[in-house]
Design brief:
- The structure is a single chain.
- By secondary structure, this protein is mainly alpha-helical.
- It has helices at about 40-50, 50-55, 60-65, 75-95, 110-120, 130-135, 160-175, 180-195, 195-220, 220-225, 225-235, 270-280, 290-295, 300-315, 315-325, 325-360, 390-400, 405-410; strands spanning about 5, 15, 105, 140, 150-155, 250-255.
- It is about 50% helix and about 5% strand.
- The strands form three sheets. Strands 1-2 form a two-stranded antiparallel sheet.
- The longest helix has about 35 residues, at about 325-360.
Length: about 425
């Protein structure tokens, strides 16, 4: 049954499907396309052979020879998403083909112009974003079997073998497990509008269970992604050209604009699921002075961003709980917050395992499997989005913990 809620001021009914949210997959793109019209075969040939072209240092030369294709033969949201995914992978591979020693300074016109046009049509920046490489980069090996890690493959990939693919696939499964929580967000807002305490309880319980499931799925990363391969081989291809010392001025997009673009790389901060949950729970990220999380919303599909903004404009859940003097409702709210704290704590552990520890080892010798002769050190502790992930995530987790309501406060403010 489709979940809806009504704006109490304008009485406008909003439907889940209007945010491009699947009933079964959440923000994950359901059954993404793997082929474009034949006209775009030059793009697909490059994207499908990306790992080999990067390893053999042929990608840049091949991209420079690509024809300049019109985007007018792309029809519908799903074709545009696949085109953005393919061009995004080609772009990241092109920029970082020679690793961190010698990043490309400009994208050729035949890549930059259509990429800009597709990006404008989707309302996304011209760089590989989380909505591309995680939400729209998967397919089932055997459609008759369940959607689990062993039956999944990526549409496109970078050097890094199975570890690189599994980084995307585990992240996608985490997002899929968030589906129930996102529907819980909509149900919670609806319940507050109707002052339906019973339904609000159920919605919060659903969100808590979803967050616990997300953490459980996230733990698959430990067994399916090798830290040395992630840090030494794979991570560079997700790096953007904003707050990146290797491309301090950004990247030139030939034929698009007269100055370089400064864009952040793909980051979990671009997860619409997490930001939707943050918004409902009223998490105040006071220690984000640069507005990094808010800026990351511009890297989300506009319809997903719209859900976050819609929830933000609706009733305040935290105020609703504080005003109700209902200890059980306060407990349900705190369970949600605690589950989100636990998820963020595990994210911190993952960052330490996949970035901090391999980097420290690299300071005393080459990181195993690193093809860039230790140049991975140039990124330092920066994440692919340009922030320092350990400092940032600790602040985010601490701000989340501060949202917990003590029982006596809830009763006192009622």
């Amino acid at each position: 049954m489709e979940t809806t809620w009504t704006d109490p001021v304008n009485q406008i009914e909003l439907k889940l499907k209007s945010f491009f949210i699947s009933e079964d997959y959440g923000f994950v793109l359901e059954d993404p396309l793997t082929k474009l019209p034949r006209y775009y075969q030059p793009w697909m040939d490059v994207a499908n052979n990306l790992t080999h072209l990067i390893k053999t240092h042929q990608l840049q030369d091949l991209v420079k020879k690509m024809p300049l294709l019109s985007t007018l033969h792309l029809h519908g949201h799903r074709q545009l998403r696949l085109a953005h995914l393919a061009l995004g992978f080609i772009t990241m591979g092109y920029v970082w083909q020679e690793g961190l020693h010698q990043p490309a300074q400009a994208l050729p016109r035949a890549l930059a112009v259509p990429y800009s046009n597709v990006s404008q049509a989707l309302g996304l920046p011209s760089i590989l974003v989380y909505a591309d490489c995680v939400l729209a980069n998967w397919r089932l090996k055997d459609p008759s079997r369940p959607m689990e890690i062993g039956n999944l493959d990526t549409i496109f990939s970078f050097p890094g073998g199975e570890s690189g693919k599994n980084f995307f696939l585990v992240s996608m499964l985490v997002e899929k497990s968030a589906n129930s929580g996102i529907q819980g967000v909509i149900s919670a807002v609806n319940a507050m509008v109707k002052y339906d305490i019973s339904s609000l309880h159920k919605a919060l319980q659903r969100i808590t269970l979803s967050l616990k499931n997300m953490e459980e799925v996230f733990r698959l990363m430990h067994n399916h992604v090798d830290p040395n391969i992630f840090h030494g081989t794979f991570r560079v291809y997700l790096s953007g050209w904003r707050d990146n010392p290797l491309l301090p001025d950004g990247l030139w997009y030939e034929g698009v604009r007269e100055e370089p673009l400064r864009l952040s790389g793909g980051s979990a901060a671009q997860s619409s699921s997490i930001q939707s949950l943050d918004t409902l729970l009223g998490i105040q990220h006071d220690l984000d002075p640069a507005g990094f999380l808010r800026r990351m919303r511009s890297y989300m599909p506009p319809s997903h961003r719209q859900l976050i903004e819609t929830v933000a404009a609706g009733p305040s859940l935290r105020s609703f709980v504080l005003s109700g003097a209902d200890p059980s409702l306060c407990q349900a709210y705190n369970s949600c917050v605690s589950a989100l704290v636990a998820l963020r704590s595990y994210h911190l552990n993952a960052v330490a395992r996949y970035i901090t520890v391999p980097r420290q080892r690299g300071q005393t010798g080459p990181v195993a499997g690193c093809p860039f002769r230790g140049a991975c050190e140039a990124l330092g502790d920066r994440g692919t989005g340009g922030s320092n992930p350990m400092t940032f995530l600790k602040n985010v987790r601490d701000c989340t913990r501060k949202a917990l309501i003590t029982q006596h406060v809830g009763l006192a403010e009622s």
